[in-house]
Amino acid sequence: MTRFRTNSNSIREEEITIGVITQKQAALEAWPIGIALQSSQEKIEFLLTVPLFQRLPQDEHPVVASVCEICRFKRMDPIIRQGARGEEFFVIKSGQADVYAAAKTEGKQEKIASLKVALHGKKSTRCVPHVRREITLVKVPCCEARTLSEAAFCEQWHELCADEPRTATIVAMLAPQLQSAQGFGVLFCRSEVQALKIKRSDFQARGSRDPTGTRPGPDRDRDLTGTGALAQSLGLHKKLKFGRRAAVSSNKQSFDKAKDTKAMRTNENLWVIGNLEDKIPAMTAVMWKEYVKAGKRLITEGDMEADFFYVVQEGKFEITVREELMRDWPATEHFPSISKIQFEGPQSINPLAFKYYQPDEVIMGKKMRDWCRFAVAWWHTFNGQMGTDPFSNVKTHLRPWDVDASMDTFLTRVDVAFEFFTKLGVDYYCFHDVDVAPQGKDLKEFQANLDTISDKLLSKQKETGVKLLWSTQNLFSHPRYKDGAATAPNFDSFAYGCAQTKKMLDIGKKLGAETHVFWGGREGFATALNTKVKDELDHMASFLKLALAYKKKIGFSAQFTIEPKAREPTAHQYDYDAQTVIGFLYQHGLEKDFKVNIEPNHTTLAGHDYEHDLRMASALGMLGSIDCNAGQPYLGWDTDEFPSDPRKSLLSMLIVVEQGGIAPGGNNFDCKLRRESTDIEDMFIAHIGGMDCLARGLIGACKMIEEGLMKKALETRYSSWSSALAKKVAEGKASLEEVEEYALKSPEPSTSSGKQEYLEQLINRYI
Ligand code: XUL
Ligand code: CO
């Protein structure tokens, strides 16, 4: 049996349950029992419910029927992938397929249509096009589709299927004066629009009728006669946009060749086919003139079955494009040299491609994107201060969009950021209030600015599908917070901090933030000599309780997290590390309402291993989110570098997988480019590298868990805790005397190896 392998970008064999695509003869043999018994007549009858097939000459019906094959797709199985060449053509027999398209600017998949069998109760069938498409199809319920092998496919169908979905709706209008629109020759107005029409089918090329199914390919010689040949020689189907068959009325008028060709000559769109003068005679042979009443819809946006090309001779028409579609095309592209980042696999040396991260790849029951939940940190990427460090506030990252401190610049950065997110293929972002909006002359103005900016953020979120992982308030940069905010000796600073926090809870709710972070900024002290330590800690608890009460009051469902950091900017930060914060939360009865956001580089500032706090927080059920970054051991400060160490990523993602995921938190790249990394493309390279590093860690962690060797070693080491007495102790039911009695009876505890070296080497196996 000859298998038709689909293009490697297309459907992979294992993704099709029964969908073996065969050539004509093999197809018949391969039909499942039962279905194979279907008579040719039944198949023909079925195919004839499809408008496309209805147009085929009758003597071709048996040929087509003979190459049909039943295949089934499970829910969510891909049938055709966007951009794939596609070797087969599907007709849905039962069930429904959803059509998704990537937005023009990036790769977010948007559902644009559903293809069903029975529409409006009528027995009609939708064809799923098969040539290189701008759409991806996912069959929804279990459904059957019929497949035709490409070899047996006549070019007529190829051409029919190759048309793009309509991207605009065109409605005839009344025009009071002379107008010109979209390069069409619009001359003057009447109460109707006059259009010259070319019937699409007249331009279709016919393949030779070879009943064996071995038809000539598109490039072979054929009988170039009639209008089909004309279309083929002009290549019209590919070049022109056709309108829909339903628009044909009986209102056809004869075509005055001498007079009416003027509209054609003045139509710029028609010149795409080459020298028009030579082609006009052949074209006019298949054209007619039609009067279209004002208000009549000629072409419908999104229509998959377009049949006519229109040339407007007189009158005016209006083109409308759905607003969402318009928004997909940004007025200015800020990263014109960069397109949507693709997965190329571990062998790739392209710095602008993923080697490990495949967002939709399912691993241990979850998509990679859902395990990772990557977010871009606004403050390190778009706050306009990039390329500074503790020794220079003169930035080295000069971006064309960082014009000034005006609202316009901040608004432009929203476009920049969302273009970046979508091209990068990241699902989330995070920001502080001061990152996204100018602070204005006072708090009121700042709040108003935040309202304006968050309106735009919200519309961008809706447009792109990118979500807000977390938001927060910056209570540490402004001089009013020089002594802290929640722990400030000056109550007015505390109050200002509360006001900023309240606003950010409102904004977080508006934008659907999944988490809200409290990083203690300057909550700490430089010297205890001037500090009421106990009072300050109590004030911090009061501040968090005020925020919690407000969150509940407004019905904001985000999780609350505190981000520990041992030092910097103050010498002694209160939120030293995960255990300190968790202890503080328990002390103030906040442990049910807060978790921790762990930044591994902060963990190292506390003198712990990179993954220490992730482990601690997770073990105590308190790991809410991660600021995934790395540090520089040769510098003393928080360098916020992108993760690039696969071993560290493995150890981090292991903890995430072991606790079943990180939602509603995520992996936020609280990372910045080095001052020396000045190219715009470095923004992408750095994030791609970070995402890949963690994805690689995820893959390794899953393999490690699946193999179970690490777990086995751990269980062996603690096996004595499964004895009856040990369990009683663990449950708090034993007495000290009981345990003493046991010890008195037992021999000296045996020594068993901790196996550290073995385990360290074992980890390398998964990197
Ligand atoms: C500072 C830090 C902050 C928090 C948010 O070291 O990590 O960016 O993540 O305020
Ligand atoms: Co952080």
Automatic annotation (TrEMBL):
Swiss-Prot/TrEMBL catalytic activity: alpha-D-xylose = alpha-D-xylulofuranose
Keyword Zinc-finger (UniProt): no
One GO biological process term: D-xylose metabolic process
EC identifiers of the protein: 5.3.1.5
Keyword Isomerase on entry: yes
Annotated ranges, domain Cyclic nucleotide-binding: 52-115
CDD domains membership: CAP_ED (cd00038)
GO MF assignments: metal ion binding; xylose isomerase activity
Keywords annotated in UniProt: Carbohydrate metabolism, Isomerase, Metal-binding, Xylose metabolism
Region (Disordered): 202-226
Superkingdom, natural source: Eukaryota
Family membership: Belongs to the xylose isomerase family.
Protein name according to UniProt: Xylose isomerase
Organism annotation: Effrenium voratum
